[in-house]
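Hey, resending since the last one bounced:
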Amino acid sequence: MSMANEKQLDPKDLSDAKSILHTFVIRARRVQEHSMVKDHSVYKYQKPQLKWVATSTRVSVEVNLPDNEEVMESLVSRLRPYILSSESIFLPKVFTSVHTVLKNQEISEDDWSSLQRFEDAFNHAYTSSDRILYKSFVSKDDSVTELTDHWLAESWLYIDSVHSDPHKEKKQGLAFTYAHRYFAATSFFSYLAILVVKFLDFLKHLSASHDLGIRPDAWTVPVIVTNSILFEGNPGQLRIYTGEPGTPMPSLENLDPENIPGFHELEKTDVAVGPSPVPVNVRLLDKNGKLLATVPAKGQASNGILRVLLQESLLIELDVLFGDADAAGQKPISVSGGRIIIPKEGDDGSSNNLLQAIQKSDSLKVTLLNGPDGSQPTLLTIGNIGALTQNLNG
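The structure tokens again:
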């Protein structure tokens, strides 16, 4: 028995029908964004083509198949909910939802006819027993197995792709080769993709003149990943913290964002310093580790010297020593000396303000590149930073 012949659940009420249509739009837009739909190759594969090839030494039957099977599998995964009666967007359930929301609304004869054609197309393709583009037969030990393209497509789904335990008609697909099953799947699911996307366009057309209960965001919410940004926000709205592997996660109840044991906050320009100058934020801390100030700076580390230019007006130079690498490839860092350099020209007085801030500080934090390949970031805390103000050059 086909999945489409299982008990079909209609929408519970008008609200449920609107929710189903809203979900359908979002998921159908995901089908619409698939590469095989965007390049129209689904139209190429929806109608199975067989080519008979004969030479003096060989006879074969060749079929049209997508070059990349994985691309086809990804399309099928997006289409799967439309043929599962347990899913809210099982297509017959979607069609019934359209009828539900339009029950008390006027609709043109053309639109009613279009809706009926979509329903007939799906029923003919999936729920009816007469949808046959071709049949396949295989003979073995005087027994003959006969399957339509629809059942071969489903057997591919249950034997080779999504599932592993085929039953009833789908199990009969084991009598055929993998190529037979996959060939049937390419045409059936290409056809289904076209049907889903065209019905999406039809709903957009209806929405222009009828209340389908589809919220505006259904047409705009992202349905594919277009960049690598996971979180995004303005400074002060989004705060990011990092800690060493294995550090216990803090409780979010009564959390003090200024003091999270084992974690430190990444600043918006908190990047690792390497051989080339990069913008960084230098953090000045008191003896209790409390943040006193965050100063925009440019950092550069090369030839054993870390140079940090604060606000283009005060340069801190630190003599940095790297020890032997540990098992993880990181080298311990120590500071053997340092100095503060004040430019002789161009100082607008900001260097004095920075000196006062440093004098009040106990330590400075900045991130260094410190890996075996020069790429491992390490947060460096430099203590007794206020003493550097006694070693001025300018």
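The first strand starts at residue 50 and ends at 54.

Sorry for the duplicate.
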